[in-house]
Amino acid sequence: MTGTRTYALAAAAIAAIAAVLVAASVASGTAPKRHVTPKVSGTISIISEATGPEQEHFKNVLADFEKLNPDVEVKYTSAGRNLTTILSTAVAGGNPPDMALLPQPGFMRELVKKKALKPIEFLRPTIKKNWSAGWVALGSVGGKLYGLYLKGANKSTIWYNVKLFKKAGVKTPKTFNALLKAAKTLKASGTKAYSIGGGDGWTLTDLFENIYLRQAGGSNYDKLSAHKIKWTSPTVKAALQQMAKIFSDDSNIAGGTSGALSTVFADSVTQAFGNNPKAAMVLEADFVEGVITGSTNAKPKTDFNYFPWPAIKPGTLNNVVAGGDAVVMFRDKPATRALMKYFATPRAANVYAKQGGFSSPNKLVKGSAYHDPIARRAALALSHAKVVRFDMSDLQPAAFGGTPGQGMWKLLQDLLKNPKNVNQIASQLESAAAKAYSGGK
Amino acid sequence: MSGASVSAEPPLREAPPPDVPAGESRWRRWLIAAAFLAPAVILLGIWVVYPAIRTIIRSFFNAAGDHFVWFANFEELFTTDLLLTAIKNNALWVAIVPLFVTSIGLIFAVLTERVRWSVAFKTVVFMPMAISLLAAGVIWRLMYIQDPNQGTVNAAIAAVKGVVEPEGALPTAEPSSPQLVGNPGSTLTLKTPLDPGQVAVLGLSAIPDADVPEGAKQAVKPPAKPDGITGVVWRDFKPGGGKIGKVEKGELGLPGVTLELKDSSGKQIATATSAADGTFAFERLAQGSYTVAISGDTFAQPFAGVDWLGDQLITPAIMIAYIWVWAGFAMVVIAAGLAAIPRDVLEAARTDGASEWQTFIRVTVPLLAPILSVVFITLVINVLKVFDIVLSVAPSSSQDDANVIALAMWRVSFSGQNDFGVGSAIATFLFLLVLPVLALNIRRFRREV
Question: Considering the domain boundaries, does residue B317 fall inside one?
């Protein structure tokens, strides 16, 4: 760099700064004092399920908030899959964190019932304007708003290894039968079709929900979500039968069924998109992408891509099972309010979206904010879908729908272990649901 | 974990009264005693006595804690299957683990007494005690992974097994058409018998690129020969699937595969090996019908790994981890006892002509009996309360099968169900189970003083 050029640059910079200063002084001179917002300070503790790359992505969002509010320190804790346990214990002990990201509206309702959460009515106008009514309803209990859906998730996606699909000469399937056939062809080509994170029960509940919504339809889905029809009903058994079609193809699952049962979600993704792929497909939500970009070298389009969950009944291709994380407050103080307000801005969503594996339900977030075209497509599929239902297991009481080793999680793992047991699993699901709905007694 | 294993202190003997005026000295003695006792009393009160009493009271209230329900929680324990597996497993734990740990500890203690570097050996065996049970659990969880490429235990078994039963060339291959029958891993036989002059078409699929033998060429369906059976064994797959059972362009032959020819009685009469294009031939055959099969060696499965963490083996697997941790403790305590045995007794036994084994059984073990029983009882108490290692070794899919009483308590109280009433009832039940053993231990200590 030559001397004159440096000089020119410096001069330009000084001129720019001077211009800003002048503008600022003019602005402050004319603006009345009431526009000056008091500086918030203090520390906030926030807890969520996110671990690994997802945790890093969320921490970057918190870091952006800290940059805007230098006097606030946000402490993040990851609860992993024990979030409900940790929070219920903390609430019972009278010492919850300041805020939390809750994936389960059912659990949020339980916390409100225990009077543990603080309403966020101060955000109602913003949220009502920029979120669709469904999300507002999910975040409300008894007419009051408690949860802000920072994160949405399109759970009706199937992620596939593009190279393995190409090698097997398989096209992305549009129907469930085509999916089963594609799986067969993949196996014939010498690669396993499915990578299942059966060590985590929730991956299996997502699979069930996608099948159920596409086979039994939206109104049955709503009824089953509220336990208004029994888990022993024919619609449930039919969906479990379809699931069993995938599970019983033992030699087509990476690691076989017993391997799948000890594979956690993140590993199920890396083993399909890592250097030595063990399987071609991961049947999970859009946040799979966050794990791919975070833990493997796979590139969008050339290495990985997704297709929408195939149709079972005609016309169900674009039905979406949605998930989402709601931010809630256990303490109402200026710092937590400030962070809540920040989460409601498109800026927070943009920081998040840029990193991949994230869909925002905030209408102000533009398509260009997303990490890549694939993430954008998944996010838009979520916001444009005509038939959208929230993740069923997350609507259940936590003991039935959100606890490792119990209820839906455990019983669907049992189905994976022994896919012939559909009837027995259905009746066990029913009795577990009945017990959870009656409050454990 | 070691809470209740802390041995009760022997009661303090009354000190002989010193020669000082009675009134003043008594006060001082009380004060000093109180000052010394205070930290222990306060800590035990806050961390042990209060929670214990609170738990017992809590066990008579409902889940939310606002209704006195008498014995309803206890009723639930014994009328539902909530504790069934847990009690069964706990009984197994008590029956097996203390015995194993004590015996292994005894063996180590006796053996290390006689080797050089015994301190080094003892340190290594004792080392696991320095790790928390939770961490030990995580270590074993990783070692138990089923895939022999990941889990240490299965890798060790695989290394031994690999020598005895080598893996076949095409372990994952499956017949591409229903014409070939047989289970995966065994001989695949062509269903329809062939006469000389016919061609055997043996299609295989599900073969990864890496398994295709080196030098494989485009598969060719060989011409028929009047006095023999010819055939081809090939990878019946091309992108998109291709036509099943048809040798097509782009599909590779599988060289080096052993084929068996059997006559109508099922006796094997010839073998052949396939060429680079997958072709093979059995020549100069008499008239009759024959069956063609692919040798089972080709499909010998690699060792898939023992499913240590599955529902069948999970409890034994956790027990092994637990024994590994506690054997060191038993060894150190027993070794200390061993060092205190009077040498002259042993010498006397040997002089009188007792063999080493007799000396060990008739002299050493009886003299060690008090120590052995302390170790044993301590372990019974600890094993009744076993919790963290079960939680950390068992994946959530087999937690039900590995359940023990303490884990059941935790799961009911905290893990989603949040029923502190039933949870406290389980805790109280566990407390009652431990109590007699504890009393026994205290009595022993008293007697020994």
Answer: yes
